[in-house]
Amino acid sequence: MDNHLTHDVCIIGGNIAGSYLAYLLASNGVSVVVVEQNRTPGLPLQCAGIVSQRFSNIVEIDPSIIINRVNTAWLILENGKRVSVSIQDNPYVLDRVKLDQYFYKKAESAGVRYLVHEKFLTCEKTDECMFINTNRRTIRAKILVGCDGPNSRVAKLHGITHNIIPAKQIRILYPYPNCSVSMYFKEYWQNLFGWIIPEGEGICRIGLGCKKNLKSSFASFLDEIQADKSHIIEYLGGQILIGYPKRIAFDRTILLGDAAGMVKATTGGGINTLLKASTYASEAILKSLEENKFSSQFYITHYQNSRGIRQLKRNILLHYMARLIMINFTQKDYEMCFLLLNQPKTKELLLKYGDMDFPLRFVLKILMRVDLWKLLFIIVARVLRKLPKIIRDLVNGG
Asked: Domains of the chain by range and CATH?
């Protein structure tokens, strides 16, 4: 065993964010090592795995990773009221394990060294480099990148913590239309929702993220949708980050992906976001190595405050604000929103401008519709009554 390694960049976390960044850097001649605590990158599955079509415009992948496409989302309240939303770009349902392993293999073929089943412990910064300690060795690197998920140890060592929602998910044989996904909202659950996502061939991913009594709530949810527990193929767990990127750049260290808070708080998704962020991170790291500059101010300027990251952060913040509003919703508030979504003009705007990753354009378009102002005014008035609590949640990080 090599007890002491030296590389340009050490990435903690061999998930899609870590592996894609490693691939981009190695393809440009950078020496990269990735520390991954699991035996195999991508396992266990901890993601619902649904992304907008923009995904295929960001990266080129093996088509077999796309296992289904959907065109309709059903939003369902606990009183049974529901509304359908047509999804113009037919989002992909991905084989998330295969996706992570795809980028793992690409990175490895580009020369990235992986240290699997190895746990990151601590790091120490000097004027010359970072010393990264695992349970097996010490790694000397010029730059440390934290891609180690919502409970990122790299982030915590730099004073950053995230608000985490526990989640449960199963893969199950369940009769459900291949072209639709469903999202279930209950005031009692708080913070997230239940979901049904079809993989195809009669298999669905059914999950729930909530703060209140997750185990019993999930069991009740399965009973409610009449899921036969004897047909469960696989039990999965996970953690969903609810927040937005704050500080993600430090001396010789940056954060990326879930570790940086790059997650849509409305859905818990973020694959497209972290892929785009990886390209901005690689640009900053390449510039850092070229100019031999590794200060926090350098990374704040060229990464945290770069044009691309600022755009991503604005959209993530919009999702987060929507989440803070939603967790304060009563059943009646949800019903008013459903009434708005059921309007023909709203459906038309959603079909034309709806975007899972970047909702700002749709929000602006709907605000310009005079014929929707009456409903919008009622909803905004209800939100304003909750504004003091929403502001407190925002200040306190949710």
From this structure: 4-42+97-160+243-318 (3.50.50.60), 50-95+163-241 (3.30.9.10), 325-395 (no CATH)
